[in-house]
Amino acid sequence: MVPATRPKLGQKEVAQIIKRHAVTDDVVLVGIRGYYLNSMGKPGVNDRGLYDDAMFLVSPTAYATFNANTDPSIYSPSIATLVPGVHRYRKGRHGISRGAGYPALRPATKGEALPVSRDGRSGTTTGIALNIHKGSRTSTSSRGCQTIHPSQWDAFINLVYLELTRHDQATVPYILTVHA
Fold this sequence. Notes:
This protein is an alpha+beta fold.
């Protein structure tokens, strides 16, 4: 399920999030977990399996909003959830284990390792290959990845790739925060 409208948070508010995280890159992605916290799913609960989160692309030449999912699709023992913070991503492919895959964003860290929490466990551990990729119409298609609704995917990935090239950036910081 995707909301009828895209996230409405203004560029000024997103710029404040970027500033709070001391990110100075030209091209930045911001994800807000629980953006639709009280208007989708169970009120006051960060649901899974819904595109109830938001993602924003900010650059000197672009500002765009997208309906996203920043949680796994289901609860399952040991499934990974990306920890809020600043994470670096690079151009890459998703679904390469099933063939050539398609353009997506992959972690830019050594071994593609990122900090995660895991269902049924306490503390933070390491998750591998938590990509930013296209979800599906019937599921958010996430086992820990960040996903964009499929109706918005092409616009999202084309704009991210364009802005990274335009501003000569090899990686993009992804700020994941939680709706207050």
